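Thanks for the sequence, V.! I ran DL-methionine transporter permease subunit right away. Repeating your input here for the record:
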Amino acid sequence: MALDMLLSLLSKALWQTLQMVALAGVIGTVIGLPIGVFLANSAKGELFAAPVTNRVVGLIVNATRSTPFIILVVAIIPFTRLVAGTSIGTNAAIVPLTIATIPFVARLIEAAIREVDRGLIEAARAMGATRWQIVTKVLIAEALPAIIMALTMTTVSLIGYSAMVGAVGGGGLGDLGIRYGYQRFMPEVMAAVVILLIVLVQVVQSIGDALARRFDKRHREG
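Predicted structure:
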């Protein structure tokens, strides 16, 4: 394959991958973050005490997380068609990617919030803080480095998932690797796709690590 054609295919596929990861990541975080905060604070006697709802939401989150991604993609094809108007292509791939992201983010955010010293919540309550103020100024503020790392992990996982949707015509680097690298026996295309994915993951991880260190109070104090 000519170099200029390879570069053209790689740039287009990279843009599709970035589009899928960015949109699914943003939408999944917007929905998953409040779910995670709720799960971390809705057991009996906690800030948003609703134990029954907590268990129901937890079961739904666990059920979605436990479904292998490639099976999820196929299982929700009717829903994907309803939302995106098609079941193939980049826009269609964003639907299952987002659905897979929501429970992933929710559980990671829940874990990050639970690491916050519960004494801080009681202190904020004693000073008359509202529940919303406790969430934004205590829980999220204190857990911010862990939340950043959670979102970094989510983005890295999304890059992997975006490559997997290439198996079902989702577009992006995975689709390019399968159509040219595997089906047409072009190892140079497969190698280029793998290198791009590795670089992309490394860039995301490096940015996430840097941001987490920047917002880590212990790091600043040190």
